[in-house]
Amino acid sequence: MTDAPEEFLYAVVRLLLGDEDTRAELEGEPQVYRWFFHRDGSVVDARLVLADDAQAPDSAGVVLWSGRHTVTALARSAVRAFDRIDHEQGEEDYESQWGRPFPRTELEALRTAMRSHQRATAANDTAFEAGR
Asked: 100 phi and psi, to 5 degrees?
């Protein structure tokens, strides 16, 4: 297995920290699954694309899923999904099944980015209300 879970989690971190465009890739051999994210303000457009192989251009492939969510909802869903995997499988079983460690560092980086984002959002809301 590639470092796709880590890539995915760090892509969500980058969105929380303000990146407008980011991506993550999961090799399915020979096919590849690509997550594309575009942030516009607090909203993220996400697409999951299946391409024939890793050399295929980003414009190639079939869109398997797309959605529009707030960056906060996307981050919260990612944390919940990986927490559930950790709870149901545990780190040892995860590593045994996938041949690599559970992405603990990346999950904690996402939690930290979420807290920073929530503090910044709350501060902006407070400043807005004070300016009214």
From this structure: -155, 155
Three-class SS of residue 79?
helix
pLDDT tens readout for residues 64-117:
999 999 999 999 999 999 999 999 999 999 999 989 999 999 999 999 999 999
Q: How far is CA 125 from CA 69, 102, 131, in A?
A: 20, 36, 10
Question: What residue spans define the domains of the chain?
Answer: 4-130
- Phi, psi (degrees; rounded to nearest 5) at 59: -75, -10
Measure the CA–CA gap between 128 and 125, rounded to whole angstroms.
Answer: 5
Question: What is the H or E stretch that residue 46 is in?
Answer: strand 43-51
Largest interatomic CA distance in the chain:
56
pLDDT, tens digit, 9 for 90 and up, residues 7-55: 999 999 999 999 999 999 998 888 999 999 999 999 999 999 999 998 9
Interatomic CA distance for residues 9 and 24, integer angstroms:
9
